[in-house]
Design goal:
Layout: H1 2-20, E1 24-25, H2 40-55, H3 60-64, E2 69-77, E3 83-89, H4 93-105, E4 113-114, E5 117-118, E6 121-129, H5 134-139, E7 146-149, H6 151-166, H7 185-195, E8 206-207, H8 211-214, H9 220-225, H10 234-240, E9 245-249, E10 252-267, E11 275-288, E12 292-304, H11 307-315, E13 324-326, E14 330-335, E15 339-341, E16 344-354, E17 357-364, E18 367-368, E19 384-393, E20 396-407, E21 419-431, E22 436-447, H12 465-472, E23 477-490, E24 493-503, H13 506-511, E25 519-528, E26 537-546, E27 561-562, E28 565-566, E29 575-586, E30 589-602, E31 636-652, E32 657-670, E33 680-691
């Protein structure tokens, strides 16, 4: 019995071992069927070499040019025994076509097998040109030029060329992406009505918008398609319709375009012959998957503007040899004798992990408001680093922005490095009804006092900043509060407003003594779309008023500023202004008109009267001349009027390249004259070609 059991175990073990032995047989040509198993692979290769040598005809162009080289080939033997060409690498297309022709003539053979089951098998084959005879190949053991290719090797060898197979025509993918729509008042006016139809759940104050959040209300692709100029000429398509480089593959896309702002003009009040701007650059934008987008732009510019702009730019200069800060752009060095060289770079990443949340990190600008101006956060200052979270759910959109700003004044520079200050903003937008929207805003600024750097307390996106300001020390930061409101009268009319509160004393308000402590401002405006039943005619009225000393601080570095510019209204504080704007578009033609009526109070700074009257936010409010009787317009009372008209032709809707003519008139009329403040009338005319990607503000 024990012997029988032992024999059974031995038989069972041998059977199991036999099943574990793998047996692979190469493909078999008919002439190889009688060969021993160990010679089948060599026979297969010899038969293939002989067949190719007998049938391959070297193309005439290869012979004429005395070409010597190699053809690299990947092919497969299918489970049915057919030859299938996968990839050919050859210098001449004629060689590729000849290889395909020869392989199409190969007979069907016995397929390779694994454990007696048919399988497919892949090979690589290097063919020398001119062809060698089979005898010479055998003498040189060249059958080794045919070798088995694994699936991983085959994928690796064809990876680069297969990329081209995934490329497809560009489908204007940007219009559904998480990219920002370049913030231009003129561009946003085109789809503003669509966002403000009665019944929409859109939120229109926090800008720039992403394409994906506007795409539910406005069809960008259809709008662009309506402007397309049909052409088969590559140059015409690129100049009038398309991005210069546009590429779309499996799960990714990007575009590359040049940037131009080439203009020349004349200022009637200037001593120099002409104004000019010469900007060259490029921008790249794209997406990786549906959730991540990126944008980068680089500008190299030289310019000389209207004289009043040049004087204003030089009044903003900071520490160092650089003579000016170009408003809204950045620090400029001297170019030639009386012009400026001002490079600018902007970039950001935009990521939406869910439909509810968008995260952006970059270097650029942001804006809060429905008006032409913003009293909360504007785009009039230079670009700065920022981190932004935008959360949208139910009837709410919540926007958090953290910014790294610079104070470039000489008195705060350390080791030739500008002082860094920080700003954190919260903005909550709530659609109370299908017509009424209410927004709440808070902001805090702080510096690296006590080496605290970026204070983690302000990183919390759902906290009240005023409370944190008390925790960290009331002198360690500067907090402001604000509110917005909008009411949709109908589909074509809406009314909007803003309120900014820097400091408020209820007792002083009740006392009626016009205390300096009541630092606040407000805005009210209205928009009228398709005005007077004229399609694409847009009208806007706006009034802004900000009391003296708003946005300023007794620790100047904690003011509401960056790069010697205001982060809110262009004029700082101590002003009132009325604005009328009209815009019209017809196909590719456009026209924009603007009137700005202003009254403001300026400082004397004449050695006798060096008080701060509350307009310059870069003055200590403790330098005020009095505590009560503070009124808008105190100081040098100045009336100003600014009118401008711009019209032109949209050359390329994909890149927003415009051919334009611009004319403006400015009347600046103070009631007292100083070295820096004097009556000035300017008539400025310019023409040019510009890639329009951001707002220029010349209404100082």
């Amino acid at each position: 019995m024990k012997k029988l059991f032992l024999l059974f175990l031995i038989f069972f073990s041998l059977n199991v071992l036999a099943q574990d032995v793998d047996y692979e047989k190469p493909p078999v040509f008919p002439n190889c069927e009688t060969q021993e198993i160990g010679l089948l692979d060599s026979c297969f290769k010899n038969e293939l070499v002989t067949f190719i040598h007998s049938n391959f005809q070297v193309p005439q162009v290869v012979t004429d040019e005395n070409y010597k080289g190699n053809i690299f080939l990947l092919f497969e033997i299918t489970k049915e025994g057919n030859f299938k060409v996968l990839y050919i690498d050859a210098t001449y297309s004629e060689l590729k076509n000849e290889i395909k022709r020869v392989f199409a003539k190969l007979p069907k053979i016995q397929p390779p097998t694994y454990n007696s089951r048919p399988i497919y098998k892949q090979y690589s084959y290097t063919i020398a040109v001119p062809l060698m005879s089979p005898q010479a190949i055998n003498a040189n053991n060249e059958e080794e030029a045919i070798s088995t290719v694994t699936k991983i090797e085959q994928k690796a060898k064809t990876e680069y060329d297969n990329l081209n197979a995934t490329i497809k025509p560009y489908e204007d993918t940007e219009y559904g992406s998480t990219l920002n729509i370049p913030f231009l008042h003129s561009s946003y006016a085109k789809f503003d009505r669509s966002l403000n139809l009665v019944g929409t759940n859109s939120h229109t104050a926090a800008k720039p918008f992403t394409y994906s959040e506007v795409a539910d209300y406005y069809d960008f692709k259809a709008a662009k398609q309506a402007l397309v100029k049909e052409s088969d000429n590559w140059w015409q398509k690129k100049f009038f319709n398309e991005h210069l480089v546009q590429l779309q593959g499996k799960g990714y896309w990007f575009t590359i375009d040049p940037i131009f702002d080439l203009q020349v003009g004349k200022d009637s009040d200037a001593d120099f012959n002409s104004t000019f701007n010469n900007t060259r650059g490029f921008y790249v934008q794209g997406g990786l998957g549906k959730k991540l987008s990126f944008f980068s732009s680089v500008y190299e510019s030289q310019g000389r503007f209207a004289d009043y702009i040049n004087r204003y730019a030089e009044s903003l200069r900071g520490f160092g040899p650089d003579p000016a800060v170009i408003p809204g752009r950045g620090i400029a060095k001297r170019f030639k004798k009386d012009a400026y060289d001002y490079p600018v770079a902007e970039a950001y990443l935009s990521y939406s992990p869910t439909d509810f949340l968008n995260v952006q990190f970059g270097h650029g600008k942001n804006f809060i408001g429905d008006g032409y101006r913003s009293l909360l956060q504007s785009d009039v200052a230079s670009p700065s680093p920022f981190l932004k979270l935008s959360t949208k759910f139910w009837k709410i959109k919540y926007t958090n922005t953290w910014m790294w700003l610079k104070d470039i004044r000489t008195g705060v520079v350390s080791d030739k490095a500008f002082l860094t200050k920080y700003m954190a903003n919260h903005y909550l937008s709530w659609n109370v009804s299908k017509r009424f929207n209410l927004g709440l805003f808070e902001s805090v600024l702080w510096t690296n006092s006590n080496d605290r750097g970026f204070d983690i307390n302000y990183l919390n996106p759902i906290i009240f900043y005023r409370a944190i300001e008390f925790e960290t020390g009331q002198g360690a930061g500067n907090a402001v509060l604000g509110a917005t409101a909008k009411y949709k009268v109908n589909d074509n009319v809406n009314i909007y407003s803003q309120f900014i509160l820097d400091e408020f004393s209820l007792g002083d308000i009740k006392g009626g003594n016009k205390s300096w402590k009541n630092k606040y401002g407000y805005q009210i405006g209205a928009k009228y779309y398709n005005a007077f039943k004229v399609d694409n005619l847009y009208l806007q009225l706006e009034y802004n008023r900000v009391r003296p000393y708003t946005y300023s601080h007794n620790t100047i570095v904690l003011n509401y500023g960056h790069n010697n510019q205001s982060m809110a209204h262009l004029w700082g504080a101590n002003f009132s202004e009325a604005i009328v704007i009209g815009r019209y578009n017809y196909k590719r033609w456009f026209a924009d008109a603007k009137l700005v009526f202003g009254a403001r109070g300026l400082d004397y700074n004449n050695g006798t009267d060096d008080f701060s009257y509350g307009g310059d936010i870069y003055r200590d409010y403790n330098d005020r001349p009095f505590d009560s009787g503070v009124e808008v317009g105190q100081g040098i009372k100045t009336k100003s009027f600014h009118a401008e008209l711009q019209s032109g032709y949209l050359v390329n809707p994909a890149t927003n390249l415009k051919l334009f003519a611009y004319v403006s008139y400015r009347d600046f009329n103070p009631n007292a004259t100083t070295a820096t403040t004097f009556k000035n009338d300017t008539l400025w005319f310019s023409i040019g070609l510009r890639t329009d990607l951001f707002n220029w503000y010349f209404d100082f």
